[in-house]
Specification:
mainly alpha, globular
Length: about 260
């Protein structure tokens, strides 16, 4: 362990990021009353990934902050997941949504308690491969959760729709801080992989929208043509207004 104090501090900041990162997305969804472009399967995969994610850090007796982090991650992902089911384009009934959430909770609690009680003693005796398998499952689910947004990007030529960039930035920041905390702490390779999956996949989403802006918004010929047309329309409108203002006094004088 390089620095326990630094590792704890960075893990704490990373956890704070992962506590609040989905709040902008939740507010964004609530204001729009629409979740077009935000795939429900993405958030479901993240909620489910939190189960092996939490089990892994409970088994390995990681930093207490890292043990809390997956549960907070699941909570806010769950809220956003409910929104994607309730708002268009899915628009499920509240009762149907309650059944889904209840099923997740019923599966989550026994799995966390059972696997932790079973595998923690094994891990303490040096048998690490069961924890490694659970960590791999968590990594795969995290990666799978970030694949559906790429299909949404493909539909829109790389444009990000429905995903709040403040959420994406805070989430990525939390992942990078957590990576550094693990490096400074116990140098747990699987922990680094878990967070790196999120960081790299989200960086790809940023890059996709940046490329879209370069292609179609900032440097597009069509955009320049539209801007010129808009300017011409504005000039013509101003001329029309000026002509009308000029004709009115002339008409009044003629009537007199």
């Amino acid at each position: 362990m390089i620095s326990e104090g630094a590792a704890t501090a960075l893990a704490t900041v990373g956890t704070v990021c992962w506590c609040v990162q989905l709040i902008p997305q939740i507010i964004y969804n609530y204001r729009l009353k629409n979740c077009e472009g935000l795939p429900p399967i993405m958030l479901l995969a993240w909620v489910v990934s939190g189960i092996p994610f939490a089990i892994y850090f409970l088994i390995t007796k990681g930093n207490i902050i890292l043990q809390i982090q997956p549960h907070l991650f699941m909570l806010f992902c769950g809220i956003s997941f409910i929104q994607t089911l309730y708002y268009p384009p899915v628009s499920w009934s509240p009762i149907r949504i309650m059944y889904v959430i209840a099923a997740i909770i019923v599966v989550d609690i026994p799995l966390e308690v059972g696997f932790t009680l079973w595998l923690r003693p094994l891990y303490s005796r040096g048998i690490h491969w069961p924890a490694l398998i659970i960590g791999v499952i968590a990594s795969v689910l995290l990666a799978l959760g970030l694949i559906p947004p790429y299909f949404e990007l493909a539909k829109r030529q790389g444009k990000v729709v429905g995903i709040n960039f403040i959420f994406l930035f805070i989430d990525s920041l939390g992942a990078w801080l957590s990576i550094v905390s693990v490096i400074l702490g116990n140098m747990d390779i699987m922990g680094i992989v878990l967070y790196s999956v999120v960081a790299v996949m989200e960086l790809g989403i940023f890059a996709s929208h940046f490329i879209w802006c370069c292609r179609f918004k900032w440097f597009s010929r069509e955009t320049k043509v539209h801007d010129q047309e808009d300017q011409i329309s504005v000039v013509q409108s101003e001329k029309t207004i000026d002509n009308n203002n000029f004709e009115k006094p002339y008409e009044e004088q003629t009537e007199d």
